[in-house]
Design goal:
The structure is a homodimer of 270-residue chains. Chain A has helices at residues 4-31, 40-47, 51-54, 61-87, 93-110, 112-119, 131-152, 167-180, 186-207, 219-232, 241-244. By secondary structure, chain A is an all-alpha fold. In chain A, helix 4 (61-87) runs antiparallel to helix 5 (93-110) and helix 4 (61-87) packs parallel to helix 7. The longest helix of chain A has 28 residues, at 4-31. Chains A and B meet through helix 8, helix 9 and helix 10 of A and helix 8, helix 9 and helix 10 of B. Chain A binds a DNA duplex (30 and 30 nucleotides) through residues 2, 4, 7-8, 10-11, 14-15, 18, 39-42, 49-53, 55-56, 60-61. Chains A, B: InterPro entries: Homeodomain-like_sf (IPR009057), HTH-type_TetR-like_transc_reg (IPR050109), HTH_TetR (IPR001647), MT1864/Rv1816-like_C (IPR025996), Tet_transcr_reg_TetR-rel_C_sf (IPR036271).
Chain lengths: 270, 270
DNA sequence: TCTCGATAGCGAACAGTGTTCTCTCTTGAG
DNA sequence: CTCAAGAGAGAACACTGTTCGCTATCGAGA
């Protein structure tokens, strides 16, 4: 352990670089052809390696995929955190929410293959406390944080949902809130779940091609649903749907600029 | 062509039976192990056949899967149509909607593997006007019919959504309505899309294990979201959330009794 | 009743896959 | 300078989808 601090990392750096290259090659392979087209032999071939050599870095085909999932969730979480951070100075909470929701959708669009990887059916069981689950939790956490802050700041008042909660459901919500350490009423949690469900449902339908095919553009429909959703859970101020959606939705550099924030995950956004 | 009407079908009957057996065996194989576990060789092995013999009935592995998807959509559509038909005598439209929504969820639960098959990412491109797409359209059609009838009957008044529709979005909605032949306002279509998105989003999250894991039961949460959704799009009458959800949700035989309606698809529900 | 074309099925083969061995070379630390 | 740890190669095994050629059987027309 003399000057190992400098030299020992040498080998580990090479190893990390190889891992990164494998992952990137795998992502490319997934990009054209879907998850089913990801083959270890193909990755090895593209890298000029032997298939067996890959097993020095990944125990199996499935753990590679799992690792890609975790990276993708991390990338999504980074994008959302950056978008939310960039929007904190906006005094209009509805607009903050819309920017965050748009950031989510933009990530889903620019990382289509990763999105299908994440939100398609889980073919392989990922054990709890996995890195994959942690990163997912981090991503959804940003959404819930935004909603909770809106409620806490008084911009949203979900108390009218109270009457919808049967005793059993209320108890479940309370337990969940305690588990998450979220200082928020059961009605607020129910409202957050409504919005999260709406957002996820829309993107799932859109990206898997199950929205009306006659549409040639779902931007406005998405904005409308995301704003209506917060109205529904008790956003107190009137929203001018025409003006708030006016700024062209595809120029916002919110996500793009944040992709390289943490080097650990920016490979997934390349 | 003498009495071919009687005898020629003999061979075709055998062929149809073999096709049915192949599909059923394939479904079983998918049931434990996911889509990835469906192998033609495995099916052939289980049937005491040669892999190559299967190609007399299905051109390829992907075609088989596509056929299973179409069957599954057909089964879902049957279940929804039966549930909706069974609920038409209920004078309370909200309750009709809830029964239909529950039927959807029950189908998703009892046909978990089919559900993941249908709403996971499309690995293989299904060309338009495919039987798969037709059956899907039939299934979603029931949902939209219910919503449209609620609006037409005056139980739902979505006109407050009108202010949310920017001109471009309104035009798209109108065009879609014309394409579907749905005599309904753009606001009504937007409302129907909101509800459909909410329903799909919930089931997608629930069945793919992305709702809060601390919950031990999502029945009440589902009912709450489905009822809140119709309130949101303008259901005019007050809903007693406590009483309408009171009847135990898992005794309703709506779907089960209807599964054998059409022999063409009941194999998928077996 | 006999014959003939269509059909079902078999068996071998090819190319591809994940995975596991063993064996060799290089590299970095003592 | 030595030597263990790591990286990689290469062969092999069991499996996959798919194709091709062969052989029975079956049903319809003569």
């Amino acid at each position: 352990m003399t000057r190992m601090n400098r030299l020992a990392p040498r080998r580990e750096r090479l190893r990390a670089a190889t891992i990164a290259e494998i992952k990137q090659t795998a992502r490319d392979q997934v990009a054209d052809g879907g998850v089913a087209a990801l083959s270890l032999r193909g990755v090895a071939r593209a890298m000029g390696m032997t298939p067996s050599a890959l097993y020095r870095y990944f125990d199996s085909h499935d753990v590679l995929i799992n690792e890609l999932c975790a990276d993708a969730f991390g990338s999504l979480a980074d994008a959302l955190e950056a978008a939310y951070a960039a929007a904190t100075d906006d005094p209009d909470w509805a607009r903050r929410w819309l920017l965050l929701a748009r950031a989510y959708r933009r990530w889903a669009h620019t990382h289509r293959t990763e999105y299908t990887l994440l939100f398609g059916p889980r073919t392989l069981e990922l054990e709890k406390s996995d890195r994959c689950g942690d990163e997912m939790h981090r991503a959804t956490g940003v959404l819930f944080r935004c909603l909770i802050e809106g409620i806490a700041a008084g911009a949203v008042d979900p108390s009218h949902l109270d009457g919808q909660l049967r005793p059993g459901l209320r108890a479940q919500l309370v337990a969940w809130g305690v588990d998450e350490g979220a200082p928020i009423s059961p009605a607020g949690l129910a409202g957050a779940l409504i919005v999260w469900t709406q957002l996820h449902g829309f993107l799932s339908l859109e990206l898997f091609g199950q929205l009306p095919p006659t549409f040639d553009d779902f931007d406005d429909l998405y904005d409308q649903q995301m704003l209506d959703a917060i109205v529904r859970i008790g956003y107190r101020h009137p929203i001018d749907f025409a003006s708030v959606t006016a700024p062209s939705p595809d120029v916002e550099p919110v996500v793009a600029g944040a992709a390289t924030a943490t080097p650990a995950t920016n490979q997934a956004t390349a």
